[in-house]
Recover the amino acids of this structure.
């Protein structure tokens, strides 16, 4: 590493030459004594001016570094505040305090919002105070991006301070100011570093003549806009020296001044002339009193050499102090010759690059610049050298590991009294994290914008406190407003269809109650012209750093909604038609064997509803004798399964045997291989049973017709035997009528069963009902038994009407039936009893009636029937077991 002492070698050689000249001048002491006296004072004058100029340079370098650091710190403050500077993060103050440690003096940071409030500060003794009247706030509020204040007296602690403030904007609107306050300790530290007497000063002015800071302290703010420094010297050169009587304390001083870079500040260092020359005067008078002219000449020559060495040493000390400051800075610091060749680097550059001085000196530094950035870097550096102006650029520099990091590189020219560039001082500031995060943010925003455009989404941002909604142009266009309009929230809500506003509000409330932070709802809108639109609204109900904002997107789903509603209507019609027809649908994925089905599908197969089932589970439900009817794995793989089949299954839930009808079609891939099998199914058990019943009814009808014909034949045969034709005709007709009556009853029950009460009541209709009593429980009869009973009642009634109880007005017929349990068997007893009629005599021969009652009736009931001719009247009694095939049993 090249230090300030390394640079002294050439200068020390000059000092030795000067000493040799002093020895030579001893011979000319007498002649040169006067000259040397004058020369000594001239050199002292030049030294003072050089010292003040160097002091101004040191002040400028220190203040320039402090301002640059302040600017970087304030940028970091701005970047860390987020969108709302009024709500800083809890740890923000402590982080700011840590960031100000590197700055000299007592430094405090304040963040002031647009209303003058201070939401964030590193000042532990801060008291709320409105600073909007201060120039450091009003200046940035009026548009200045940066502002350095004049000297002020703090209203908080009475100290002399000056500030650097930065304008803070959010969305292009002034949001407040970030302010960094320097105390007088900053100038005191610079004053201490210059090794000057107590009457010497350092100061900082703005180029409008306003005092910014001074040490020793001034009495207060000072305006020197009419001073010769600002009216003459600064207009002639940016740096230099002059003599002046101080307007503050009246001291006669030599003043060095220098503009600080591209700022509006001027650095001053002044040395009291009296104090500077007092030592010289005392030494001169002592020497004059003790020495001869030769001694005087030697003293003057030696003093000249001494002052020359002293000035050079001081210059080297200043450079060494600069080096110390540079080493303490977190930045990379370097210097360059006026030609642009770099000649010094702080240790940070060596440790970062892993290179040595010889590798970097001159133009060697270009090897660590990224190849893609090097052309523009070299071009911009050459432009700055040619113009002698501030150099600033961002590019990538390679670290020792080979990785390239982004740096902000700045360099300022240092000029002599003639305005010529003597040296360049540069810094490299690490901005890699900022740069990469900025690039990542830009890429993220680009992807988001593309996603929003691709998804045809409109973006909005709602401030819940003010109720103001910030829309995108797409949102306004979607709601029928001008793209640059700023409609109120109420105007947007006016597009909601009746009842939708309340529904959305309830959905948002429910989401919050459930701890959900996202809301998605489809909302029906009605435009003033009656147009209906459906919009999908998605919202983030609160942001992590701001719970007073809701952001979201809106998507037009009108077309999708129309398609969905049409599809739903079609599916509803299809489902209703399937339900009405009892049809179930199925889908089989042939490679996996998984079956999907409709609700009716699972019901038909007696299974619980599920997403899918393997075909093997269904095959196991088909009865074994129909396993060759259903499809198999081979027929499905080849697509040769029968399209329309019928087979039986045994339902796993009830054990029932059910008939199914199945119709299928195959879907093939590009190679013609079956991949899907679609089909419909129906439970045709009822149809199958109906077919069986139809066949049975056909057989039953044939059987009954034969029975009726046989019965009619028997009735005719018995009726026509041993009687005249007219009597036979009447009897035959009555018997056929009874048979018809019984048929009517059976027809009303579809020839299943008939009640004894219905048969009795229907058969006795032709008889005098006031003379007949009939009672008994409801007992159901099979058709054959019902017909026999009807014929028997007809025969008994006809006989009673002709010869028995019904032949006289006071005669009675009592018909009763009952059911009794005899030895565990339910027995039916039916009884016909006549009374009040003529005396009864037992007939000499048995006719058709007797045959029908005793033989046919008992036989058809599966029991016994008796006919008794008692003197009081005829009694007929039938006894038969229930559930014997003819008597169906009690009707419940």
């Amino acid at each position: 590493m090249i230090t300030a002492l390394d640079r002294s070698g050439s200068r020390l050689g000059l000092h030795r030459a000067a000493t040799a000249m002093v020895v030579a001048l001893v011979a000319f002491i007498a002649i040169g004594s006067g000259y040397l006296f004058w020369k000594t004072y001239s050199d002292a004058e030049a030294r003072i001016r050089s010292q003040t100029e160097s002091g101004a340079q040191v002040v400028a370098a220190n203040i320039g570094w402090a301002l640059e650091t302040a600017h970087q710190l304030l940028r970091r403050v701005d970047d860390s505040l987020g969108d709302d500077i009024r709500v800083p993060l809890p740890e923000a103050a402590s982080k700011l305090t840590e960031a100000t440690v590197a700055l000299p003096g007592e430094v405090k940071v304040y963040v002031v919002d647009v209303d003058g409030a201070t939401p964030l500060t590193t000042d532990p003794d801060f008291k709320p105070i409105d600073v909007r009247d201060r120039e450091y706030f009003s200046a940035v509020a009026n548009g200045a991006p940066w502002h350095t204040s004049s000297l002020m007296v703090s209203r908080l602690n009475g100290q002399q301070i000056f500030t650097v403030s930065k304008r803070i904007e959010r969305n292009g609107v002034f949001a407040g100011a970030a302010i960094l306050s320097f105390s007088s300790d900053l100038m005191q530290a610079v004053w201490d570093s210059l090794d000057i007497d107590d009457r010497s000063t350092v100061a900082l002015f703005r180029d409008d003549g306003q005092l910014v800071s001074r040490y020793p302290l001034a009495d207060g703010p000072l305006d020197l806009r009419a001073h010769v420094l600002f009216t003459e010297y600064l207009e002639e050169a940016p740096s230099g020296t002059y003599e002046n009587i101080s307007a503050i304390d009246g001291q006669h001083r030599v003043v060095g001044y220098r503009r600080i870079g591209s700022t509006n500040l001027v650095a001053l260092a002044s040395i009291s002339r009296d104090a500077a020359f007092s030592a010289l005067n005392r030494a001169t008078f002592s020497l004059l009193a003790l020495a001869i002219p030769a001694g005087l000449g030697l003293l003057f020559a030696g003093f000249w050499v001494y002052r020359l060495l002293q000035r050079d040493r001081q210059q080297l000390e200043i450079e060494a102090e600069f080096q110390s400051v540079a080493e303490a800075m977190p930045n990379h610091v370097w210097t360059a010759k006026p030609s642009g060749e770099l000649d010094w680097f702080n240790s940070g550059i060596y440790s970062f690059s892993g290179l040595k001085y010889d590798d970097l000196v001159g133009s060697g530094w270009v090897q660590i610049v990224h190849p893609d950035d090097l052309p523009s870097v070299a071009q911009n550096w050459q432009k700055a050298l040619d113009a002698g102006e501030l150099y600033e650029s961002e590019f990538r520099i390679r670290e020792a590991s080979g990785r390239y990091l982004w740096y902000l590189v700045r360099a300022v020219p240092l000029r002599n009294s003639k305005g010529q560039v003597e040296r360049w001082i540069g810094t490299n500031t690490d901005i890699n994290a900022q740069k990469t995060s900025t690039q990542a943010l830009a890429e993220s925003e680009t992807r988001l914008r593309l996603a929003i455009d691709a998804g045809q989404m409109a973006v909005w941002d709602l401030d819940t406190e003010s109720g103001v909604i910030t829309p995108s142009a797409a949102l306004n266009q979607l709601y029928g407003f001008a793209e640059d309009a700023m409609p109120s929230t109420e105007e947007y809500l006016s597009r909601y269809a009746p009842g939708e506003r309340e529904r959305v509000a309830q959905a948002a409330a429910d989401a919050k109650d459930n701890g959900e932070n996202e809301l998605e709802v489809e909302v029906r809108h009605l435009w003033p012209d009656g147009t209906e639109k459906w919009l999908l609204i998605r919202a983030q109900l609160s942001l992590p750093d701001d719970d007073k904002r809701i952001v979201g997107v809106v998507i037009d789903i009108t077309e999708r909604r129309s398609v969905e509603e049409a599809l739903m209507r079609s599916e509803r019609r299809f489902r209703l038609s399937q339900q009405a027809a009892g049809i179930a649908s199925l889908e089989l994925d042939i490679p996996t064997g998984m079956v999907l089905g409709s609700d009716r599908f699972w019901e038909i197969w007696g299974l619980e509803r599920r997403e899918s089932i393997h075909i093997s589970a269904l095959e196991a439900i088909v009865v074994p004798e129909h396993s060759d009817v259903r499809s198999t794995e081979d027929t499905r793989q080849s697509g040769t399964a029968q399209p329309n089949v019928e087979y039986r299954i045994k339902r796993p839930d009830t054990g029932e045997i059910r008939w199914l009808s199945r119709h299928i079609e195959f879907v093939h891939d590009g190679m013609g291989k079956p991949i899907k099998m679609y089909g419909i199914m129906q439970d045709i058990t009822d149809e199958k049973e109906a077919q069986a019943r139809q066949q049975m009814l056909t057989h039953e009808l044939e059987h009954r017709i034969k029975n009726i014909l046989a019965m009619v034949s028997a009735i005719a045969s018995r009726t026509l035997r041993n009687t005249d034709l007219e009597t036979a005709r009447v009897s035959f007709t009555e018997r056929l009528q009874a048979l018809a009556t019984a048929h009517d009853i059976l027809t009303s029950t579809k020839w299943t069963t008939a009640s004894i009460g219905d048969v009795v009541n229907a058969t006795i209709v032709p008889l005098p009902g006031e003379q007949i009593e009939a009672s008994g429980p409801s007992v159901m009869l099979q058709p054959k038994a019902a017909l026999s009973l009807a014929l028997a009642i007809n025969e008994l009634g006809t006989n009673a009407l002709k010869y028995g109880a019904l032949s006289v007005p006071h005669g009675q017929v009592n018909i009763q039936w009952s059911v009794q349990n005899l030895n565990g068997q339910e027995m039916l007893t039916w009884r016909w009893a006549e009374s009040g009629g003529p005396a009864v005599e037992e007939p000499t021969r048995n006719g058709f009636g007797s045959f029908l009652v005793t033989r046919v009736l008992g036989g058809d009931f599966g029991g016994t029937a008796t006919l008794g001719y008692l003197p009081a009247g005829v009694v007929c009694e039938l006894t038969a077991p229930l559930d014997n095939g003819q008597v169906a049993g009690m009707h419940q």
About this structure: The longest strand covers residues 404-415.
